[in-house]
Amino acid sequence: MAVQPKTPLKKPIWTLIVLNLTDGFLTYWGLVAGAIEEANPLLSSFAPLTIFLIKLLLSACLAGFLFTPLVHLQSRFWRYFLLSVNVLYFGILALHITWLTLVYL
Question: Rounded to two decimals, what is the model's pTM?
Fold first, then answer.
C-alpha cells in the first residue's frame, strides 16, 4: 500500500474554487435579473457574462494550484490565509442568499 503524500492545502483550495464559481454564478444571475449591482469596483464596469467568465478563469487558475507543490506546503500561514479567504467568501455568499430570499420569496 503506497503512502499518499500530504496535501494540507487541497481542501481549502477546492473550497475556494467552489465558492468562487458559486459567487460568479449568483452574481451573474443577480445582475441579469436586475436584483443586484456589482459591488467590486474592479468588476463593476464589465457586462455580467464577462464577470462570470473572469470568475471562471480565476477558478481555473486556482485549480492549477492543485497540480503544483503549493498544495503540499505545511505552512500555517497559507492554511490560515486560505481559511480567511474562504470565510470571507462564505460571507459574500450569505449576502447572495439574502438577496435571493428577498427577491424571489
Answer: 0.87
